[in-house]
Write a structure and sequence with these properties.
The structure holds 2 protein chains of 2 kinds. The radius of gyration of chain A is 14 Å and the shape is globular. Chain A has 2 helices and 6 strands; from the N terminus they run βββαβββα. Helix content of chain A is 19%, strand content 35%. Chain A has a single domain, classed as Folate-binding superfamily (Folate-binding fold), CATH 3.30.2270.10. In chain A, a hairpin with a 7-residue loop joins β4 and β5. Chain B is an alpha+beta fold. Among the domains of chain B are: 113 residues, 2Fe-2S iron-sulphur cluster binding domain, sarcosine oxidase, alpha subunit, N-terminal domain (Ubiquitin-like (UB roll)); 180 residues, 3-Layer(bba) Sandwich (FAD/NAD(P)-binding domain); 142 residues, Gyrase A, domain 2; 89 residues, Alpha-Beta Plaits; 98 residues, Aminomethyltransferase beta-barrel domains (Elongation Factor Tu (Ef-tu), domain 3, Beta Barrel). In chain B, β9, α4 and β10 form a beta-alpha-beta unit. The chains are: A alpha+beta, B alpha+beta. The interface between A and B is medium-sized, with 33 and 25 residues. The complex binds zinc ion. The site of zinc ion (ZN) has 7 residues of chain A, from loops.
Amino acid sequence: MIRINCPYCGERDHSEFSYGGDGSITYPALDASAEEWLEAVFQRENIRGVQTETWHHVSGCRQWLLVERDTMTHEIHSVHAAHEGIAKVLEAGK
Amino acid sequence: MSASRLPAGGRIDRDQPIEFHWDNRKLKGFKGDTLASALMANGESILGRSFKYHRPRGIMSAGVEESGAIVTVGRGNRRDPNVKATTQEIFNGLQAKGQNAWPNVRTDLGSVNGLFSRFFSAGFYYKTFMGIPPMEWGKGTGIWMQYEKLIRKAAGMGVASREPDPDIYDHGHMFCDVLVVGSGPAGLAAAVAAAEGGLDVVLVEQDFEIGGDYLNQSSTEAERKRSSQISALKKLGARVMTRTTAFGLYDYGVAGLLERVTDHVAVPAVEIPRQRFLTLRTKHTILATGALERSVAFGNNDLPGIMTAAAANSYVNRFAVQAGQRIIVATNNDSAYSPALNLARTGADVTVLDSRTSLPDNILGLLDTKGVSHRAGTTALNAVGKKGIASLELASGDDGQWAAGDSLTCDLLLVSGGWSPVVNLLSHRGVKPVWDKDNLCFVAPIFDEPIQMAGSANAIWGTSDCEASGNAAGVAAVAAVKGTGMNNVTSAPGAGGWETPIAPLYEVRVDNKKTKCFIDPQHDVTADDVRLAHQEGFVSVEHLKRYTTLGMATDQGKMGNIIGLALMAEAMGREIPEVGTTTFRPPYTPISLGALTGRGKGAHFKPLRRTPMHDWNLAAGATMTDAGLWQRPWYFARQGETITEAYIRETITTRETVGLVDVTSLGKIAIQGPDATEFINSVYSNAFAKLPIGKARYGIMLRDDGIVMDDGTSWRLSETDYFMTTTTAHAAKVMVFLEELLQTRWPHLQVHVTSVSEQWAGSAVAGPKSRAVLEACVADPASVANEALPFMGVIETSLSNGVPCRIARISFSGEMAYEMYVPSDYSESMMDLLWSAAQSFDGCLYGTETLGALRIEKGHVTGVELDGRATIDDAGLGKMASDQKSYIGSALRSRPDLLRTDRPQLVGIFPKDKTEKFKAGSVLCSENKVEGHGDGWITAVTHSPTLGHWIGLGYINGGYDQWSGQTVVAADPVRTGNTNVEIVSPHMVDPSGERMRG
Ligand SMILES: [Zn+2]
């Protein structure tokens, strides 16, 4: 029953969001090797504790978010816009 | 048991008599009665039959923990099984019945099961499965299934209605600062303190009256306190909800509430829901959930006429029902003395047996003045009676060493084996309760949650201590919510409050006397079952629970858990806390499936999507079908046509002249911006970098892992503006993926993606006469001439009525064909124009059935072929993928396993005997090995009017090259049997594509 404080919309119920995936992944360039892509697509940590995740405010502003969530307690430590340029603008305006 | 209604007193309203039905007999009660109190007042003592042995059962409690009086309420489509008579309010016309009995609970022929009780002991299902002597002949599932039916019929609970539920249920959301669960002395004090501190308070009470244990007290002082607290809450604006159960606590301060709105109303207003399922979000929670009185395991402790001491106290004080006349009270603690004195005051002959050897003088003095006889160091050993208790064999002794004693006649036995605080909701939060060895119960440990325990839920026994504890919890909640620190918080009273310590008493047995001692009467689990489970190696509490069914189903560990643990501890030679406790899980009390479902059933189970030309299609004779959330035309039957006749005619007409089909449900995405070309070229696997303005291209998108995600077309409208179509099924997924790429991976790209699926309505126009139809409909016929609009060309123009439109010459049918889109509001005028023109060429409208036939003939893939397992090569489209660029999925597409040539590949399928048909879903097997998963499967079939026989598409290991010329079996063992087929190219009609380019 998580609530996520969307930087665009404010605090909203989890039912408005959908979980994306591991937000700590940096996807390789399209022309990178299959090995690099294999690492990015398939190799996942199974973290017990705080992990960075992507969430999509799919029934709201449709923006992708980077969420730090504790997998033990569901506690959310931070929420940022996933688009780094927008995140910078939003945080400068705070 | 000879129960009777007292001439005066109680909280019932004697001015409001109520008539209700019990087992088809008309009985009378009063407003304020529960079904249990009313039945008791009418002298009914056997209200149920037990789960396995069909033993007669009566009322054992006065609350949600009831294990005996479990009945069926309502009739027909409103029949509700397994209702606790102790919580059901009566109303005029209420229909209630005993269950698990035939012909009724008083005379139950199934009670012969008791004679076979050894077969029903712990784990009887598992053992019967394996075959136990003398039933070894039962070994194996075949015979098991025969007598499983008999056992299931004999062992059971109530029967739910098989008809649809006629009631409505609502879902709602609430918010507050503090949720207080329970409205007894502690809960009321907590709610008042929190509201006085300025907090927004919600107080929920599962009963129909506020007051909790105040309601069971006979003093005017209790009633004065209760009503002043209620008016204080009203004045402070707190929300007070009766008939509402907090059934579970979840993350983020979420509490699940179930409000029973009309379960007590004879004729509910039609607009009112039966129940409300509420999601409450609170900053702080106070659990004043009380405690449940435990029984003790002794012989025949399930006989009607045996109940908890507190229950009889509630019946006499709250409901003015004297549960018996010759009463024995068996206790191991102080709490049973007040009920004993209350019942003596109202005229009963009362004897107290206390398992403890010494009692304080003040209690003994009080008993003497009230004429209550008492015996110390004595307890119940074995109840005697056929359909109710008639006498009690006593045991006497000290420190658990019991010896059989004499016998007393009685009509009611009250038992108090101690109290278990209701820590269930706290347990939902993952907090493990700890054993309090002074009070012999599990209590909340120190925990880190915004939750306070108050009153007897925290093992605080006295009323004034409970009030103080509630007040402290309320003040603490104010400090926590307002963040003002805990300076003003008064210290709450500690656990306990009895003058003489409670003495352990879980089971009473003496050597050389076999007795049946129930610890979970609801499931007929006995003390011997626990010992048997231990003997057979089930020493973990969680295993014990599953093996014996102790504390399962509606009980959820309320009644038998502690005794079960105590017996297991004894068997293992350990202490109770070393054996552990089971974890309580939601819901605290049962929730109807209707309440969970809410309004989301039937047509409202999922959203319904209709295209803007839905009504136009219906008016034109469409039969609709569901395609995901969408409703799409399935076929347009003419006078007397079956679906098969209709789609064959539509397919022939489209191939010979022209057909129109609503394609609005396709996903449509506007891709705009200076980097739109780079973006689209990186997303599709085939080349898009050089797509000229005014051209469309078929495109295939892969996932990161190299598997096909979706296919569709993209139309280049200008330098920076693309119009992408996706499949109907994957429209949302593609949109989400494009947004993810732009926002998380490629933030440097200047591109906007906008879903325009709702903005544009579309029709495909397919067939040799399609261009002629377009010429008749657009403002400038020359704009759709072959040179102006060649194969894969795109134009933006307007219809002859001035409606703007965009047209691409693309084909899914294999014919010369176009897709035309107009703004959604103009869809009907587009269809009017197109259909009028098509009719002049003897054209037709078609639906998804013909769409399927046309595309299967051509070997075009859809979601059933692109099923999340297929690579672009598997689908036969590998040649389209570019090797000049990198794109999403290009790296992992070349994984060795995805390049194997023996992977399943797309093929066409013909029957060997052209008069035969076969079905989608059939397994493709080689002729000499028709078994298992075979070598492939059939994804889609249709009758091909063009070829004159049934055809199909499917996947087979190695594809056409490996299987061409061989006989393959399409195996469909559970439906139509096997058909011999041959594997052909998937392009079964016009493989060179001349018709669509023509
Ligand atoms: Zn948002």
